[in-house]
Each structure stands twice: as structure tokens, then as C-alpha cells.
Amino acid sequence: MKHLTDDAINEYLDHELAEFDRSSLELHLAECAECTSHLEVLQEVFAQLSKLPEASLSHDLSSGILRSLPQPHALPPLIRLAAPFQAVLALLGLAITIPYAYEKIASSMTGIEFGFSLQPWFDLQMMGLNWWIVIKDFHLPALPGFTGFEFSDQILYLGLLACSIAWFIGNGMLLKDTRRNHP
Amino acid sequence: MASPSDRDLILRARRGEMEAFGELVLRFQNRVFNVCYRMTNERRQAEDLTQETFLRIHSRLDTFNLERPFGPWIGRVAANVCLNYLESVKLKPSELDEERDADENPSPETAYENKEHSNRIRIALASLPARYRLVIELRHFQEMSYSEIAANLGIQLSDVKSDLFRGRKMLAEKLK
Ligand SMILES: [Zn+2]
């Protein structure tokens, strides 16, 4: 009688045998004490392993693990300043546009008195405009071979465009950073 | 509020949320620790390897397939981390025995285990060559099939079988 191989017995216990092999192996086991005792030795190993209790950690490892993780890099401080800087710009923008808007509304609705005067605001605006004219007319001292540099409206627009792009990028980074660190 | 699913936590951890990863660690640290403890039979070492496992999990979180359960995946990662460690130190069984004797810091819970019995198995396991220990861990404790083990370790199916069967034979002799 040909005895079962170790491989066959192992595969049988691991449920890795095809149904046909399984039945013929069981037939052999039913009439062979030697192979049955081999099987029982292995079954005992299976049983011992499954009886091994779970050990418990003596302390929580999570804080140590979190500390040792690579920290998400912080944004450069310049970008962190973007938020207050934007607030200042927004206030400035409001200060510039509100008198215009007021004037527009007041002129389109004759007969309605607002009951308050924006004169100080207009004065401020005028001051700002004067500043812009001064800046616009400012010429860098001419150097030999260099005709000087003129601030034009185009330069203003280009400057505004650059600011807007910086605004979008800066805000995007801030937003991403906030989502990352403060769910 | 219901606690978030593993999947939610993984997604949030992938976005870099430390808190979410911390919650995953809390959920799975004992499981990982048990893999490492079975593989090394040394508590302090198992704790270090648990930490290392979570570092590896964190760096590979993007490769995890969300359709599959998280627990078995990290069990496999832990087993691999332990194998790398055991291979790197090339611990001989005799050295392991000494280390185990030096392990005088069992948790109070071990008092409730059938200590005599589990120690016997742990010692027997730890005395096996690392390769055998690994396949036994993957087959018996991570409940992987032969082909899953072969794919996971990148070895031949026949090698999985021969390592596993030899490992069991050695265990049987040691547990006699
Ligand atoms: Zn037989």
C-alpha cells in the first residue's frame, strides 16, 4: 500500500486539495493507522497554533508612532501672511469703490437724501488719486544709455494681474494647508 | 455619532490628516503587535517593529486597495517588516532564547493567559528559521492561501509549501 505523502496531508489540512484527491485521501486514512497518526501529529500543531492567545500591548503606541511620522511641511511664513495682507487689500478696494458707487446711486435716484455725507471719504479718495498721479509721473533718474522708466496704466494693470495670480496661488496653498491640518 | 469606517479613516489619512491615521493606529496596533510578537517572541522588539510597521503603512497607504479589508493587509505588512528585521539581524535560535529569557516585562494581561502553554508555543515558533516562521504566520494567523503567500512574498508556490511543511514538522517535534 502506498502511503500518503507529507505534502498531501498538509494540503489536505489546508483545504488546498481538490475534491477528488480529498476523497481518495480520506479513503486511505480510513484504513491506514500510520498515515492517520501522521495526520494527528499535524492536527495537533494546527490546534496548538490556534490556541495561542492574543497578547496585549502593555501601553498605547499611537502617540509615539504619530510623533515619528514625517511631519507635513509647514508653509513659508510669507504665505501665512497672505490672509492679513488680502484683508488690507480688500478694505483698500472697498475704500476706493464705495464713493463711486455712492455717487452713481445718488445721481440715479434724485430726490432721495441719504442723510449723511461722504465728503471726508471723497477727500481721502482725492488724496489717493493725487498720489497715483505723483507715482505715475515719477521718472527714475536717467542713467547714461537708459532713457528712464515711466509708470503707465499698463504697468498698473500688469501689476494688478500679477497680484491676482499671486492671490489665487497663495489662497490655494492656504486652503490646502488648512484642510490638511484642521479637518 | 457613529465612528468612522476604516475606509473613511484611510481616505483622510491619505490626505495627510494625522488624527485619522492616529485612529487607525489605535484600532490596529494590537493586531500588528501580535504579529510582531509571534515573529520575535520579544515584547520590546515587537513594539519597535509595530512602530516600524505603521511607518511603512503610512508611506504605502496610497498603494492600498480600498476594496479590500484593511486588517489582513496590515497583517501582511507587519509580517514582512518582521521578516526583514529577522533577516537583517540573522538571529540564531540560541540568541533568541537568551533574549526571551531577558524579557522580564510581561504585561499584566499575560497573567490571565495560560502562560505555560502559550510560552511553549511562542518559544517553539521563535526557534524556527525566520522563513518558516513567516509562512506559518501568514498561513495560520493571516489565513492566506498558498498562492496568496507566494504572490505576497514573490516566491514559488513550491517554496511556500516546502517552507510551511518543514516549519510545521519542526514545530511538531518541538511541541512533542
Ligand atoms: Zn498510509
Task: Provide a compact summary of the structure.
Chain A is an all-alpha fold and 183 residues long. Chain A is built from eight helices and no strands. Chain A has two domains: 6-51, no CATH class; 77-181, no CATH class.
Secondary-structure blueprint of this entry?
The complex is a heterodimer of chains A (183) and B (176).
Chain A: H1 6-13, H2 19-31, H3 33-51, H4 62-68, H5 77-80, H6 82-108, H7 119-136, H8 153-181
Helix pairs in contact in A: 1-3
Chain B: H1 6-14, H2 18-40, H3 43-60, H4 70-89, H5 93-102, H6 115-126, H7 130-141, H8 146-153, H9 157-174
Helix pairs in contact in B: 1-2, 2-3, 2-4, 3-4, 4-7, 7-9, 8-9
The structure holds zinc ion.
Zinc ion (ZN) binds next to helix 3 of chain A.
List keywords for this structure.
heterodimer, A: 183 residues, mainly alpha, 2 domains, 0% strand, B: mainly alpha, Rna Polymerase Sigma Factor, Chain: A, 9 helices, 74% helix, binds zinc ion
Describe this structure in words.
The complex is a heterodimer of chains A (183) and B (176). Chain A contains 8 helices and no strands. Chain A is mostly helical and 183 residues long. Chain A is rod-shaped and about 115 Å long. The two termini of chain A are 70 Å apart. The model of chain A has no long low-confidence stretch (mean pLDDT 81). Chain B is mainly α. Mean pLDDT of chain B is 86; it is low at 93-106. Classes of the chains: A mainly alpha (183), B mainly alpha (176). The A-B interface holds A 6-7, 10-11, 14, 16, 41-42, 44-46, 48-58, 60-66, 68-69, 72, 179-181, 183 and B 12, 15-22, 25-26, 29-30, 33-34, 37-38, 43, 47, 50-51, 54-55, 58, 105, 107-110, 113-114, 117-118, 121-122, 136, 139-141, 145-146, 161, 164-165, 168-169, 171-172, 175. Bound molecules: zinc ion.
